[in-house]
């Protein structure tokens, strides 16, 4: 067996650039104009560049990504599903990164040791499944997924999907990198295309160059303020201009990372000399040479920068030369202002001006440059005998960054003023933070260099008001412990803090190589995937059974959702995250958030077996045990929200045969199809109103199920009356095959046989 190489050999890069040179003229011809850089990358990854429909925001396109990256929380179900496909190895290079499950409490080494114990079974599973199926595996402590991907795998012009919303971080190295749910990752790992609506394009023209206190972070905080948290939805944010070329690769990654905060599909910078330098510094000379040779292919056509308006659905201009350092929050990243205004605004709004904690790091701001600039402030303070007035936690983004900032004395600079170093992991950025300070009891303010600041995100407490700024601004505020301060104009101990400084890349090179990485073995015949049958967190999946060829008759109505029924209503997150790798256990949350027309409170319904009100997952289990097939009824836009595949797998697992709704959110509809469930839409939305608690439903003539043909249904009312009705669907011939086989993965498994 040949193993898929988890790294990217230069030969693959060369092949991609040859394709880019073939597809770029096709794109120019089809659109009748020059191309932006994002368009060039998309054309190079379309399954069918000659015929793909190209209406932005409307057409669905099939893309062939170059790689997949997964973090430890989302990888569990994705890989459990992949295993049921019966393939010997992943179809594209893929990696798993253990970063989300490490809780921050005492400091790097103690917290890491504790995580190794607490999460042992999850790590053992991910390690063994990676070895078995040819994925690269990054041990806990090796770094945060997006920093590691940037250092090891990202390269200009490539495309990646990742099961984490900040996957677009790799856009800093000119990669179209999109955050997806596990179901999409499974598609790509089994060799199917990634299906997505063709994004709109928002151009961001950066003028001037940042100087002094202004950092890349301030660019994205300003963009978020301009576009708001929804302004990037369904769009690629494409940066260009002299300001873009003035930013380091890791600075650009900070900007692309936080595009997730405004809903962007991804964000992207064209390649430039900084990209080449970053590739060399991270030990990828052969790829750096190819990028240097192809720089013209890896940027916009020149006409775009000369007159950008015709190329974008929306255009923003930001002058980096006049941009003031920003602080955003609390609660949302689009509530921004300059540092000069935060003190007065906090006082006026009644937000605590004292800072209970300050935190530097997260995948957004944990690069060498970030820590170097933060450390320059700390060094100045230490020389004057100053210490932090608010506790300061610092997270390096990867072991490579940690070892380098340690060697270069930057961590010592931060420790000298009282900072505590955390493990190279997500920690407080994902709520993995055990706070014991008294301030956490009441309303308190914290300032971080992270990306998300919604209530409860960092420490699980709605009392904590989280604000965001650049790492150097965070350290400056740590020294005064208070928002009533402007680092640009106010003195500490009689002196102004000098402007932050730091190298973009370490002049002595990075200190360590690939620490914590396990390449898959060439011979995997001895590898057994480790799942303890008594585990409550992990469970091997059984393939769903195929359709038996009969019409679906006498289906019980489990629930009728009234109003919104998002993926959170269908499969809640929070404490249920623990069971993401255990379909049986996580199914105990099925529909718990749903406002059911036949229940007294959310998540409740009427059980026809026990003739009593029970929780919806309990009822579904009772029906499954009694072999009563059931259907769920949705209102408008059923399944909106995240792309979480559990929202489709759970009803399938507990015995649903179809979901009938007034309309579906597209990703949820596709996920249902993939799991072999029928997503059907009432041809007359008024039929929804006719369905009562004790009715049963027939779905008939399924032997002649065909694209664009209505499906016939019958409601048997409890009073003996019957109502005939029609349903529509969006099933293609392939989707109908999935239904017949029991799931999309069953088809792959059949073919693999
Ligand atoms: Fe981790 Fe926070 Fe980034 S959870 S992947 S550090 S957004």
Automatic annotation (TrEMBL):
Region Disordered: start-end pairs: 503-526
Domain named Aconitase/3-isopropylmalate dehydratase large subunit alpha/beta/alpha: residues: 40-481
Pathway(s): Carbohydrate metabolism; tricarboxylic acid cycle; isocitrate from oxaloacetate: step 2/2
InterPro entries: Acnase/IPM_dHydase_lsu_aba_1/3 (IPR015931), Acoase/IPM_deHydtase_lsu_aba (IPR001030), Aconitase/3IPM_dehydase_swvl (IPR015928), Aconitase/IPM_isomerase (IPR050926), Aconitase_4Fe-4S_dom (IPR036008), Aconitase_dom2 (IPR015932), Aconitase_mito-like (IPR006248), AconitaseA/IPMdHydase_ssu_swvl (IPR000573)
Needed co-factor(s): [4Fe-4S] cluster
Top EC group: lyase
Database matches in SUPFAM superfamilies: Aconitase iron-sulfur domain, LeuD/IlvD-like
Residues covered by the Aconitase A/isopropylmalate dehydratase small subunit swivel domain: 556-684
Enzyme Commission number, as recorded: 4.2.1.3
Keyword tags: Iron, Iron-sulfur, Lyase, Metal-binding, Transit peptide, Tricarboxylic acid cycle
Family label: Belongs to the aconitase/IPM isomerase family.
Record NCBIfam families: aconitase_mito, PRK07229.1
PANTHER family: ACONITATE HYDRATASE B (PTHR43160), ACONITATE HYDRATASE, MITOCHONDRIAL (PTHR43160:SF3)
Protein name according to UniProt: aconitate hydratase
Species of provenance: Ferrimicrobium acidiphilum
Lineage: Bacteria, Bacillati, Actinomycetota, Acidimicrobiia, Acidimicrobiales
